[in-house]
Please model this.
Amino acid sequence: MSTFTIDTSTSRATPSPVPGKRMTAPSIRARKANGATEQPIVMLTAYTMRTAQLLDPHCDMLLVGDSLGQVIYGLQSTIPVTMEMMCAHGAAVVRGSWHALVAVDMPFGSYEGSPEQAFASASRLMKETGCAAVKLEGGEAMAPTVDFLTHRGIPVIGHVGLTPQAVNMLGGYGARGREKREAEKIIADAQAIDRAGAFCIVLEGVLEDIANDVAKAVEAPVIGIGASAQCDGQVLVTEDMLGLFERTPRFVKRYDDLASRIGEAARTYADEVRARTFPTADQTYRPKG
Ligand code: KIV
Model:
């Protein structure tokens, strides 16, 4: 039975759900017990209210990823993403969801300076969006920050492996951990974030063996993206899995081909406007009675 009332009838309907009982950081953390996760954790990215509404019933967590810089704003990387962007999109996703835990990415430059800077940014994200957790990138170097935040009431998702905010250090977005030293570093990073209190850890773009080792080495659930089926859950960028972009990265499965379908719908609309076959009487206001 539904625990919420939400009007999704038109684009002008009142979209905010009556608050329901959401997934929580402790409930997500508890999904992994004694090193095993019975039911894998389902996470997708969401940046807008309507997308959140559509994804929410199917997901344990919605991530307002800083990937919105590229997906929504056409930026070259996630580096220029601002707190203002994350606040605006985070609030929209919280308004459009009632069941999933909403986590918001901390943008580059908003947390690396010090634990205090991270607390100021994370608390602003929580106050302005209503999100229940934040995600930040980095391993051992960020462990004191994760510890600082979690001891001050801020649930944190870690993010190790391929960390896109470090693209200028990494030199690209290829899979990480092909060399032994880097593989060991990724495992050490995950362990440090785990010990510091992250309630789950996103592991991005690593070889399957590393995913396996990380999943075994940490107590928190590991949410993979391009990190094989060895993880305790999976996350994808929604626009990738819906087929909104032409190139499909190896780790993405396309569940639809929305780019073609949107293009086709727009072409039909344009043809009909030019042929004056839209609007018809069905779409025209007439006097009543
Ligand atoms: O920004 C993002 O969307 C992410 C996911 C790819 C995990 O961090």
Remarks:
- The radius of gyration is 21 Å.
